[in-house]
Amino acid sequence: MGRVIGLVAYHVFKESVRDKVLYNLVLFAVLMIGASYLIGQLTAGQDVKIIKDLGLAASSVFGLFIAVFIGVGLVWKEVDRRSVYNLLVKPITRAQFIIGKFFGLALTLFVNIAVMAAALYAVLGLMLWLQPGLAKVTVEAPIMDPQLLTAFALLYVQLLVVTSVALFFSTFSGPMLSAAFTFGLYIVGHFNADLANFEAVVKSQAAGWLGKALYYILPNLAPFDVKAAVVHGQTISPGYVALTAGYGLLYAGAMVSLAILVFSRRDFK
Amino acid sequence: MDAPVARGRKGGVGALALLTTAALLLGSALALQAYREARHPLPPASGDVLYFRGGAAVSRAALGFDAILADVYWIRAIQHFGGTRRAQESDKTYKLLYPLLDLTTTLDPHFNIAYRFGALFLSEPHPAGPGRSDLALSLLERGLAADPKRWQYAQDAGFVHYWYRQDYRSAAEWYDKASRIEGAPWWLRSMAASTLAEGGDRQSSRQLWQQLYETTDDTWVKNNAQLKLGQLNALDEIDALAAMVQRFAQARGRAPADWRELVTTRWLAGIPLDPSGTPYELRPDAPGGVALSEKSSLHPLPPQFLKKAGPTT
């Protein structure tokens, strides 16, 4: 079972490489190098903070676009090209197919995030090498702060949640609608905390319960965002990281299960 | 075998023709644009536009990208301050400075430098700044509310009271408040005492700027502290020169015509230069008869200390 999932995942990764998805890394590198020069001309001694903010924000945006635009096509493309018929006659279950697709995109995202993290550290290292005095100036957090990895790790888990949502929509909807739904849930996921206290602003108890139910059902993406805290050198406890990552992985698992459920019931005759 | 070669050559020629066409069309478009700009110039885009004013609303809409948005507004604040300061117009309002700083710090409440620089930018008297020390204080108080352990904000508030408002009692209160915050340096306590006892005194002001110069890592703050220390030194030198000019006038029954007269009569070893290297000016209309040149990078001197110079007799 694991071998089949691995094969499907490997082919998803290979296809993303063939589709030149990893080219975004070149764009990221150019953006970071260009910004590290330009920012120094525009700001009054906040270069390191801004480069860190920019690096994390760019990783987040690039990752989000990959997760959504590739995620929504993962199943739909196979159905549209009718290659799904050839696949499903082989000794591969629909669950293996969906799980393999998910892990394939997860691998693509992992490579992306890992290279972006390495590129950000490289740019920061270069800045430190060119201006050794910066080490003294950035008192809030060290330039080569290992805590940046915490932000990248939580960002990765957040992208896994987005991928699972996109994959779920991809099992029963076209790419345009799936992308719209996924982006919609991404936005809602950042406002989710408001739903938890919905009962305080409405009179109806039923509406309050509905708000509470939606709060638990919809993905809560805001806790994954520790970019600002990390850049300001605030400590993110291992407990917080573990609980947030655990929530994300469980939520992604639930969405993949739902995707399997929907895909298993689809009739391809 | 010849057919593919011929096809390849043909393809190469076709590509070259397309590239040439594209280059020609692009060149023509650029020329046309340049001609249109010369004949019908568009009004210059105004930089003084703030699309959003409610920091909280922008923060909600940022979807986790608050920090990078805060950086954008911070860069805009610096550009607005620097651009207005350098502008030739006489009516410098710096009208966007506080809204931009407000947006920056609402989006990123821990943006340390935005509070500290922002307070200095806002406090600078007109025309070097908007002269809004009240807004500077409210910005620092917000910073302290977001991060109560940052004694530097309380120190800066004391500084704004001391230097820009000449309110030495409030300055001492803020230094005292800063000294009580965990991790604050020991000298803040003595600063509170000396501010209350010798407020407005040049020596205590010098001590204050010296502390700021030595404790900051930031180039802008360091340069600003260096400038203020230079101004304080210039004030002392002007006092000494004014006393000399007064003695000369008493001895000769008239004020010296220029510095050379004092040099040739060995009252001075050379033309006196201010700390920036610009010669001081002998001006009968100036208090004490000696003034800082308007060409000096130290000009204008802090007004609260200028009254110390005595009139020429």
Task: Explain the overall architecture.
The complex is a heterodimer of chains A (269) and B (313). Helices cover 76% and strands 0% of the residues of chain A. Chain A has twelve helices and no strands. Chain A has helices at residues 2-18, 24-42, 47-71, 76-80, 83-88, 94-130, 134-137, 148-170, 175-196, 205-217, 227-231, 238-265. In chain A, helix 2 (24-42) packs parallel to helix 6 (94-130) and helix 8 packs across helix 9. Chain A is globular, with a radius of gyration of 21 Å. Chain A starts with a helix and ends with a helix. Chain B is flat. The model of chain B is unreliable at 308-313 (pLDDT under 50). By secondary structure, chain B is an all-alpha fold. In chain B, 64% of the residues lie in helices and 1% in strands.
Concise overview:
The complex is a heterodimer of chains A (269) and B (313). By secondary structure, chain A is mostly helical. Chain A has one domain (2-265).
Give the helix/strand layout.
The complex is a heterodimer of chains A (269) and B (313).
Chain A: H1 2-18, H2 24-42, H3 47-71, H4 76-80, H5 83-88, H6 94-130, H7 134-137, H8 148-170, H9 175-196, H10 205-217, H11 227-231, H12 238-265
Helix pairs in contact in A: 1-6, 2-3, 2-6, 3-6, 3-8, 6-8, 6-12, 8-9, 8-12, 9-10
Chain B: H1 2-39, H2 55-61, H3 66-86, H4 97-107, H5 112-123, H6 133-146, H7 151-164, H8 168-179, H9 187-198, H10 202-215, H11 219-252, H12 259-264, E1 281-282, E2 290-291, H13 303-306
